[in-house]
Recover the amino acids of this structure.
């Protein structure tokens, strides 16, 4: 049996979700390659339609609120209307910040799947300057939202490693 399948099940993923987490990781790598931060998201409607996928574009747009989740939700709302986000699932390569977690609740998404937990990813980003604000207390406000955190974490570190390597060059 391939170990990816075992890891996915262990992390609480549905069988078809590992590919969506890996897609977010791939998009995050591409974001780093063009000078953005190492985050990306894939938003899938409750009926399975991929509404939008994209990455953190803060460095390029100059908009400090353009986190991957915000970028993807904003674009999906423009294209499909806010009602399409109800019950949707967002796949992210890293744990959402509290701003994004709050917006996820605001638009009634039903499921959040992220790979790398905040405690793991912060050292790659902050050099100790960003305070830790885990998303769990925000998501706890909506017990009907399912959150799967740390999915495929160990194989999903590459965007963060690339980000650090790029900063050093
Ligand atoms: Zn955020």
């Amino acid at each position: 049996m391939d170990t990816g399948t075992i890891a996915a099940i262990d992390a609480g993923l549905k069988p078809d979700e590992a590919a969506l987490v890996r897609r977010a990781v791939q998009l995050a790598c591409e974001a780093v390659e063009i000078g953005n931060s190492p985050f990306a998201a894939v938003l899938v409607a409750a009926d399975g339609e991929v509404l939008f996928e994209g990455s953190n574009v803060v460095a390029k747009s100059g908009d400090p609120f353009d986190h991957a989740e915000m970028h993807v939700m904003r674009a999906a709302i423009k294209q499909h209307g806010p009602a399409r986000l109800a019950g949707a699932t967002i796949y992210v390569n890293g744990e959402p910040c509290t701003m994004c977690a709050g917006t996820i609740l605001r638009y009634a998404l039903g499921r959040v799947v992220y790979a790398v937990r905040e405690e793991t990813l912060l050292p790659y980003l902050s050099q100790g300057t960003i305070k830790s604000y885990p998303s769990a207390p925000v998501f706890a406000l909506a017990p009907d939202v399912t959150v799967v955190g740390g999915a495929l974490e160990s194989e999903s570190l590459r965007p963060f490693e690339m980000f650090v390597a790029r900063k050093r060059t």
